Each structure stands twice: as C-alpha cells, then as structure tokens.
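To close the chapter, one final illustration. This time we ask the reader to focus less on the individual chains and more on the assembly as a whole: which components sit near each other, and how the overall shape emerges from the parts.
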Amino acid sequence: MNNRITELFNIKYPIVQAGMIWCSGWRLASAASNNGILGLIGAGSMYPDVLREHIQKTKAATENPFGVNVPLLYPEINKIIDIIIEEGVKIVFTSAGNPSTWTSTLKAAGITVVHVIANEKFALKAADSGVDAIVAEGFEAGGHNGKEETTTMVLIPGIVDKVSIPVIAAGGIANGRSMAAAMALGADGVQIGSRFALSRESSAHEHFKDAIISAREGSTKLMMKDIVPVRLLENPFANRMIEMETACASKDERKEFLGRARAKKGMFEGDLENGELEIGQVSGYMNEVLPVSEIVSQIREEYNLTIQKLSKQSI
Amino acid sequence: MNNRITELFNIKYPIVQAGMIWCSGWRLASAASNNGILGLIGAGSMYPDVLREHIQKTKAATENPFGVNVPLLYPEINKIIDIIIEEGVKIVFTSAGNPSTWTSTLKAAGITVVHVIANEKFALKAADSGVDAIVAEGFEAGGHNGKEETTTMVLIPGIVDKVSIPVIAAGGIANGRSMAAAMALGADGVQIGSRFALSRESSAHEHFKDAIISAREGSTKLMMKDIVPVRLLENPFANRMIEMETACASKDERKEFLGRARAKKGMFEGDLENGELEIGQVSGYMNEVLPVSEIVSQIREEYNLTIQKLSKQSI
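The assembled structure is written out below.
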C-alpha cells in the first residue's frame, strides 16, 4: 500500500516511531527505519554533540529514511538546527513551540517538516506555516500534551476535515487494532511511542521498562497542567505532585519540587522513586520487551487481520 | 450484518442510542428503534410515573425492541425496577452503581441486562455479575464518567481482551468513521449519545441544542472529579465551578454551589447560564439538528464507505 505518508517519507508502511526523549537514540531509530517504518531520533534529551553522534550512527546503521524530532523550546535550538542541516537530515518533526519560527529555514534546506499538535487551532497554524504534514496527538499519549484534553478518537476526524495536508494520528496507538482505528478515523498514518519505548532497542532504563510492564489501566495521569501538561506513570514522585496539586500548593512550590532533570532520572537512570516516567495510557496492556522487528510485524499482522475482518461487517 | 449485538437485542444495526437524562424520552427512543437501532429511554431524569408513561408511549410508537437506561443510584430505584418489570420491558441498561445488586432480579424477569462501565475493574465485576453485555465508555463521553480518564481508543482493546461477553463502545462516537474505529478496536457495537442529543426527536431544550452547535474542539471538560465526575460544556456555571476547583474551594463549598437540579435547568429548561450541560467532546463537530432517520443513514453510509476504503489499505 502506498499513500500520502509512505510517499512523503519514502517508507514502506505508514508508521512513524516517535522521537521520544531518553528512549529514541540511534539504535531505536535505525531499527525502525530498517523495518520499513520511519525512525526518529529524539533530540529533546540530547546535547548538540550527542545529537550529532546519534545522527551519524543512524546514517551508518541504515540506508533507509529517518528523521529527528526537535522540541522547538530546546534552549540551544540554533545549534540543533545547524547540526541537522549540516548532517543532511532529510526529515524533521518539530514539537512544543511555534511552527512558523523554523519551518521556512528547514524547508529552504530541502527538509521535509512535520509539526506535532494536540488541538485544532494549532493544526491550522501548522498548516498555514507550510509544514508538509502534522502529527495530531490525543490526550491518551504519553509525555507532553495539550490542555484541551481532546482524545485521539475525537481529534482525528475533526482535524482531517479541516486541513488538506496529511495527518498522522498519535496517542493510544500500540497495536494493529488501534492502528486500523486511527486509519478509519481518517489518518494517513500513525505515530507510535510507548510501544517502542518498551522495545529492545529503546534506550530507556531497564527499571523504567519493568515499570511499563507493571502498569495497569488507569496507571498514568496527565498532570502539571498549569506548568507543562505531561502524562506520567504513577510513582512516588508523580503521586506527591498530585497530592500537592490536590492540596492547592502554589505553582512556585510545585515548580521547585519538580526541579530539573526528573525525566532523565526516571527514564534513563532508572530512579523509579524520584524520576518522571513519561508513558501513554497504552502502558496498561504492554507486557513484554520486544525487538522492533517483532513489534512492527505484530502490528502489521493484526492491522491486516482487523481491516479484513471489518470489511465483512458492512451494515 | 449480524453479530452478537444485533442478535442479543434483535436489531438491524449494532448501534445503541444512549439513554440520556433530559434527552431520551419516548420520541427519541421510538424513533431510534423504528430506524433499526436500539432506542433507550433515559430513566435517570424521570419520576416513576413519568417513566411508566414514556414506556407505554414507546410501546405504542414502535413494534421494535427498545430498552430503558437506569442509573442504579436513583433514589426510588425499587419503584423503577417494579415498573420496568410490570410494563414488560425486555432490555435494561444499568449504570452508576453496583451491577450485582439488581442483575439477578432483572434476569429472573427475563430481561436482557447491560451494564455501563468506564474501567477494566468494573468491566470484570459486571461480567461476573452475569450481565449479557457491557458498554465501555471512554473519557471523551458526555455526562457522568470514570476517574481513570481512560479514552475509548485505549479502553476498548483492553476490555475486549479480558471479557468474553459482547462489548459496546461509547465515548467519542458520532459518525461512521468513529463507529468503524470502534469496531476495529474490537467492539461488537457502539452506543451513541451526543449525536442523538442533537436530534430533532431529542427532548433537550432548543437553547441547549444551539449551545451544542456552537461548541468547538476543547469546549467540554471533565470536572467535579471528587464529587461526581461529569463532562460538561463550558458555560458560566461550569466556568465558575472550574474557578472554584482551581482556587481549591472546599468540597462542601463546591457541593453547595452545585446544589440540585442543575442538569434539568440547563438541558431541559434551557438555562445556559446556570444549568449543567452534559455533552461529549464530539460536540466540537456537530453542526445541525437532524432527524434520527437522517443521523442513522449518515452513520451507516459513512461507516460502509470507511470500511470499504480501509479494506484496500493492507500493509
């Protein structure tokens, strides 16, 4: 099957492996690209030199297209953009910031640009800024998210009716059934995060991977809505933050408690007590670490079975 | 197409019109049943005698199967159950309460029983209590909801893997694309609320219908999580309640402000300032009042087109 997303990225299947902080290094991105989907390096947790190294290692490990996810609020954003252009990266996903700031620079360098949004307003802004596609991410997604709390089921049909560029659905997609659901809603492709955070090639700490396996339905929560909305797995840190929110602790007090580098501590260093554990609601039914090749083939198989079964259910 | 849901209820299409308070009277329920789906009377907003009248009028208006939705926390629940049995109602959807309390009584009277849940724990409890099917309702649904905030996209695959009885998906479903998505996730049928709240046959006040038409993406919010979680449309009442929540007003203070009969005031009497307006996230893209016949045929048409299109997208 070819569609607007497989053609835009020159990939085999319309699936993107999300560029997640502390999970999406060169091992994960190149494994994804080598398995016919789009691999993304997550620049959000990398110093500029580290990013350069990961780009070079990805280029060495795959001949297929790959990209870099760049949170636009990154402090050294100029350096990051320079490295991406210097290294000849062909695809950039931007998130967490205004898409109009960097899109024209990236496009002028011949780069395909995709922007991540979580509501209709920013979908329209992104389309206006000239990006080639958008990722529309629902409330159930892990990590940073929007304030509107619009779910994937509701967000996707609304957005595909309002923009003409391709839409990649994200949030709540971890298997072939949810991929089929996203495509039914009108998406041109899907971006999958959490399932790849739990892959063998993910650079997440083993303790974090174990915590994802132990997660159950209801184990994650979108919190810190007035600081920076983020979906986290319950742990002593997250529970304490929720207690402070419930008790109406001041924003300053909560920011001080949050401090810095909590995500690195939890996701990369494996501190399950004090770290931030960014993961989606689908963590409730992910029960084993698998290699990327196996994840992709399981998703494909279940997706194909699902659409075949569904095709016999006309009413 | 016949499946476990069309067979369980003896209906043509695996679609249930939700038994919503202040919207789902005999006009809506009989119109739904006359159009090949399951119509439900919403007992939650009816005095016992009013419910009896609506059951009798529905029986007079359709020869097709219909049912009654009963919130189990209803104060005069004994009277309601007696009336349902006396009037020979064949299908009951129970919600907001413990399914084990009434299921055996209803089953002994030959009634098909369905219980509404919003998380896995209660799905398993409902199955254990002997119900014939469950409605699994995601975070995006209007009105009363669960505390886990699990969305339809995530909830349905998790639940269909854990229970053997049929699962009806609810929350975020308002058109043929979202119906196809729900079926792809593994549901045996769908329950649709908000779209029918905006039908010609809905008993919602015209002002409330106008407010639904004006709603945009992000206009609803799940609030009052520590009193009774409910998704409401933004209006002066809801905004004031959110302000009180943000300012950490005490539960007693917020309960006093909430008072009683806010839903009747808003949804039935059309007081858009002071009333509670229960509606789902899909209100963001519902733009006209339509007769039930037209809603059902639009959903069917789009659903059939969607599954046909999807069947050509194997990967």
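Chain B touches chain A through 60 residues (CB under 8 Å). The mean pLDDT of chain B is 97. With these observations in hand, you are ready for the problems at the end of the chapter.
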